Amino acid sequence: MSARGKARKRALDFLFEADLRSTSALELLTSRPALELSEGGYVQILISGVLEHSRKIDELITTYAQDWDMDRMPAVDRNIMRIALFEILWSQDVDDQIAASQAVAIAQEYSTEDSAKYINGVLGRIIALKPSFAL
Fold first, then answer.
1. Burial of 7 (0-12, 13-18, 19+ CB in 10 A)
2. What letter does residue 69 receive in the DSSP assignment?
3. Neighbours of 16 (CB within 10 A)
4. Rounded (10°) CA dihedral 41, 43, 47, 50
5. How far is CA 61 from CA 2, 33, 93, 125, in A?
6. Residue 52: CB partners within 8 Å, gap ≥ 6?
7. Rounded distance, CA 90 to CA 17, Å?
8. Strand, helix or coil at 26?
9. Residue 55: its pLDDT value, please?
């Protein structure tokens, strides 16, 4: 697995835990030795980016995740999409399709097969409409 793949999983750990504990993922990150890991810098970029753009990211998920409210969506799926959408919309050095395929792979590992298909569909719609977004 690539360093960025490991970083995505590590960022998911922090975002997921923060979601469950109603705390800040950045506070969790700074309280743990994640920055000592080889992928620690990218973990921080992902978490910071997701938090900085959380309003727009959650708005897009709410809009394009048909038949699912954010509160009803599994926390792991919600946070996988948040990471992928940050990379797709604001990270210039990650190809959109790679970000989406990594999100699907993580969903297959940590969630259900149905979740992976659903995440792929939501991200695919957003990628297709990306040129029309005012960010």
1. buried
2. -
3. 18
4. 100
5. 27, 31, 22, 10
6. none
7. 23
8. helix
9. 95
Contact 135, 91 (CB under 8 A): no
Tokens at 76, concatenated: 């792991």
Domain definitions of the chain by residue range: 3-132
Superfamily in which the 3-132 domain is placed by CATH: NusB-like (1.10.940.10)
Task: Please state, in angstroms and rounded to a whole number, the distance separating the CA atoms of residues 120 and 26.
Answer: 27
What is the rounded CA–CA span in Å between residue 102 and residue 120? 10
pLDDT in tens, the chain (135 residues): 688 999 999 999 999 999 999 999 999 888 876 555 657 789 999 999 999 999 999 999 999 988 777 778 899 999 999 999 999 999 999 999 999 999 999 999 999 889 999 999 999 999 999 999 877
Sign of the C-alpha dihedral, residues 86, 89, 95, 101? positive
From CA 62, how far away is CA 72, in angstroms rounded? 11
